[in-house]
Specification:
Radius of gyration: 15 Å
Mean pLDDT: 90
Number of helices: 1
CATH topology: Ubiquitin-like (UB roll)
Distance between the termini: 51 Å
Amino acid sequence: MSSINVKLFATLRNYGPKNLEIGESFPIKISKTTSIEDLLGKLGIPREHAKIIMINGNIVNNLNKKLMSDDNISIFPPVGGGAFIKGNDRF
């Protein structure tokens, strides 16, 4: 078994350990055949909730990509919220 470090952002932090601080990563044990999709399943994150996934700072689009020992994984949800304000009008 190997270990990777996972960092979850925004609402995805709810899928990590309790009391996880903003920007804090946590280790997870993986096998040699663990893919990104396997990791999402292990964490309970629905595929559509993981919009941007990075391995060691590089964006990855292939969910079948195998993870390696000591990889740093960052997972971001879709961007949302906020409002565009022009004068007193809100769009």
